[in-house]
Amino acid sequence: MSASISRRNVLQLSMGAAAISLLAACGAKDDAGSAGAPAAKDLVEIKVGYIADYNGAGLMAVADQEGYWAKAGLKPKYLPFTNGPLAIQALGTNNVDVAYIGSGALWLPASGKAEIWAVNSVSNADRIISQPEFKTLAALKGKKVAIPTGTSGDQLFSLALEKEGLTREDFDIIAMEPPAIVAAFAAKQIDGAALWYPLIDSAKKGQPDLVELFSNEDFIDQLTFPSTFVAGPGRGAKDKELATNFISVIKSANDYRFDNQDKTIAATAKFLKLKEEDMASQASVAKLFTSKELEDLSSKGTVYTWLNALQEQFKAADKIPAVVDPKTFYNSELFVAAPKV
Q: Is the dihedral of CA 302, 303, 308, 314 positive or negative?
């Protein structure tokens, strides 16, 4: 791994520490409880990190609505994050027990910074976008392109560069947080960006004629882009009961979501205090699986194949020094063995 890339990744994580503390102080909320469940005093608190969109919060909303947390003996304390690297940084400071991340942050579990407890869905939410006057990625050469480092948008940008025969040195790359990218794009302070829905919907409000140059779907033959729930490395073995109970909640909420898309959209909108139409558009860019399908994909090694392919791409982008056995950061047996609540 090059020194510059290494410093960039470390800096990105280090800069999140203050933000994590702020989120933990003012962004948390508690939710749990259902008829017939254990008394509140008997529930075990679990600190859950989420991202405020359909993929990142849908299962949390369902688990609240259907009382799955209490049925599993858990009481969630929610903390919002703007991206996966920040959430994983919080795992290392014990601000959260488990967190949702997109596929672009999976280089951190592969680096030994976290372990996967469950797959959430497969995403087609990421895009490379540009101002209306730029119709190709090559047209952005020498221009300002904003990228949230270490995220799925960053990952998609690497794939697009490889496909077009370009390098990062061909552009004026600016590392920015996702919300800041939206504001800068609307103000035309940047010419292009690597971002994802629903933030792109927000960017379109400021620049409705923006161009979508690349999406995950353009590389579906090369890579699958799973979002996951992760915990600190070794946490599943150390605290197997907590891990099993969490996965049980996720499996139950996942199957409810699969069978009740409209109700899940409504629940997520309520959870996030957003409009249902916004949730509906976000839901359209997620490929869902039943929990049984995810069990089969895990036990048959398909998820490991996904993770290996992602690692190859992370290695090529100098985010990890080497490809490791994905079993070191995803214990499929733990996921498969967990029952639904």
A: positive
Closest CA to 12 of 102, 88, 95: 88
Give the number of other Cβ atoms within 10 Å of residue 261's Cβ.
16
210, 129 Cβ separation under 8 angstroms: yes
Which burial class, exposed, middle or buried, applies to 306 when counting CB atoms under 10 A from its CB (0-12, 13-18, 19+)? buried
For residues 166 and 139, the answer to whether their CB atoms sit within 8 Å is no
The fold of 3-124+224-337 is: D-Maltodextrin-Binding Protein; domain 2 (3.40.190)
What value does the CA radius of gyration of the chain take, rounded to a whole number of Å? Answer: 19
pTM of structure? 0.77
CATH fold of 126-219: D-Maltodextrin-Binding Protein; domain 2 (3.40.190)
- pLDDT tens for residues 239-288? 999 999 999 999 999 999 999 999 999 999 999 999 998 888 888 888 89
What confidence tens digit (pLDDT) does each residue in 137-179 have? 999 999 999 999 888 899 899 999 999 999 999 999 999 999 9
